[in-house]
Amino acid sequence: MATNNKFGFAPLEADAPTRRERSVGPMGAAVREAAESLTDATDAKVEKRRQNAKDADAYRMAQDEGRVLVALDLSLVGTDDLPRDRMDLDVVATSDEMEELKSSIRERGQKEPIEVYSGADGTYQLKKGWRRITALSQLLAETGDARFGTVIARIEQGDDGRLARYIDMVEENVVREDLTFAEMAQVVITAAQDAEVGEPDPDALVARLYGSLHKMKKSYIRSFVFLLLQVGDALPFPKAISRNLGVDVSRILKARGSTDVLREMLGSCQSIDEQTNVLSGFVEASKASSQLPKKRREPREKFEFHVGDLKVTARRGECRIVSRDDFAAISKPLLERAIKAFEEELRRGANV
Fold first, then answer.
1. Does 341 have pLDDT greater than 60?
2. How many CA atoms does the CB half-sphere of 139 hold within 13 Å?
3. Which first-to-last residue range defines the signal peptide (predicted)?
4. Are strands 124-128 and 77-78 parallel, antiparallel or unpaired?
5. Boundary of a domain, candidates 108, 126, 159
């Protein structure tokens, strides 16, 4: 407790220290806000750069794997480097199915991309999608509409090799069951004659081109390959040959080894029906004349049978008879007569 001193006043008490209030002024607030914005912007830019780098890597990967679609001018895509897997392309180009495809593209645009690769001259060459690019070309010529002058395409990256391109070309139509056996066989023959494929044996190429098919279907293709190699140039309508008829004709030609008769018969065909009649008649005539050799029946090593109570076992050089009778108790003359009659019957039957 404070008391007055001799001077009549109490000692001064020190006031509690006061803290100076430091408030941010307008300039400081502006600087701080600018600094915070700059920090946020820097973080956003860093994240954006990170995302851009990730997107770029994903794009390059997709491009390397051929998953990037591009729009190409029709004039940049050639269709003459890789032989097509269809016969009678002119007929396909004017078919009802082509008109249906054109109608779909006209109304909804091109929905499925074509596939191309870089040719030897640097231009693009068609691998898959002949009908789509043909439909677009026809629409451009008919309408003059610039939107039909470009085609959506997937570009092959790297060089998959000639054989792989053949496989890619036919795979789409094979899966859709859009190719006849004659067309599939023709692809095999064409590929075997292509020096860049490196496989001249058509039979080996069937397994490589159509490896995903059932072995029975590959067997049918091999039959048509043989048929076309033997008489293909004499067939006016190969696509119209049914599976069973083609296989039968091929089998007979393999057995005969000569094609002159069939070639002469096919020379007068003017329609599909006439061709079918000629091939069917050829098969029937061959069956009737028994041109195909029959497999000789091989004799059995041994066999057994019963005659009454007797059990007979027959094999080469031996005929064994087992019975409950005591053959030793039978007189020799009786046994001789029985065996002689047995032998005479055998000889008589052998001479009939």
1. yes
2. 26
3. none
4. parallel
5. 159
- Tell me phi and psi for residue 318, to 5 degrees: -150, 135
First-to-final CA distance of the chain: 160
CA 266 to chain centre: 32
With respect to residue 34, please indicate whether it lies within any of the assigned structural domains: no
Closest C-alpha to 73, from 28, 143, 136, 159? 136
> At 298, is the secondary structure helix, strand, or coil?
coil
What predicted TM-score, i.e. pTM, was given to this entire model? 0.57
The pair of three-digit structure tokens given for residue 37, joined into one six-digit string? 């914005």
Q: Which residues 6+ apart lie within 8 Å of 84 measured at CB?
A: 130, 169
Rounded Cα distance, 201 and 192, in Å: 6
| Residue 219 binned pLDDT confidence (cut-offs 50, 70, 90) | very high
Enclosing domain of residue 109: 39-159
For residue 11, the model assigns a pLDDT of: 63
Predicted local distance difference test score (pLDDT) of residue 238? 93
Residue with tokens 């003459």: 80
* Domain count within the chain: 2
Indicate if the pLDDT at residue 173 is higher than 70: no
Query: Chain centroid to CA 77: how far?
Result: 24
Provide the angle, in degrees to the nearest 10, between the axes of the packed helices 243-256 and 181-192: 50
Give every CB contact of residue 272 below 8 A, 6+ residues apart in sequence.
Answer: 237, 240
DSSP state for residue 238 in the 8-state scheme: G
